[in-house]
Amino acid sequence: MARAITADLLVQVCAEIDARLAELRPAVQEYQQLLDAADALEADAARATAEEGPADAKSVRTVATRRRARRRSAAGGRGPSAPRTAAAQAIVAALEHGSHTVGELVVVTAMSGPEIRESLRALQRAGKITRAKREGRTAYALSGTA
């Protein structure tokens, strides 16, 4: 019976992930198109600035530097609030689909209980997750600031 519940849970989580990926794929494509357009505009501005003189060149370089930093962080770079370990990332990914108990997280993430508990403590200290009771058991969910 437990294996059937585990298999059903895994199938459900995989289906939710696939649906979310399909939903977000157009947004990622649009984001890439916007970055390409911004790069083209930036190149035009740099050419115009080179023709006008060095007074405006500094502001163009500053904008370009900020844009590259944003692109690096959006392309997979870890920002200051991102989980630091693979275990924490897996837990946050699972909690994006709703609250889970430690036992459910063990099944979904295929990690050991102690490893999950350690990551949960770190995520709680960082304010990324909250702990609550669900059907008499302790469950974890993403906090509003995560």
List keywords for this structure.
single chain; 146 residues; mainly alpha; elongated
How does this model look, in words?
Helix content is 68%, strand content 8%. The protein has a two-stranded antiparallel sheet. It contains five helices and two strands; from the N terminus they run αααααββ. The radius of gyration is 22 Å and the shape is elongated.
Multimerization status: single chain
Measure the end-to-end span: 34 Å
Rounded Rg: 22 Å
The number of distinct helices, counting runs of at least 4 residues, comes to 5
Query: Helicity, in percent?
Result: 55-70%
What general form does the structure show? elongated
**SS class:** mainly alpha
Q: Please outline the major beta sheet.
A: 2 strands, antiparallel
Quick recap:
By secondary structure, the protein is mainly alpha-helical.
Task: Describe the secondary-structure layout.
Layout (H helix, E strand, L loop, with lengths): L1 H51 L4 H18 L11 H10 L6 H8 L3 H13 L3 E6 L2 E6 L4
Antiparallel strand pairs: 1-2
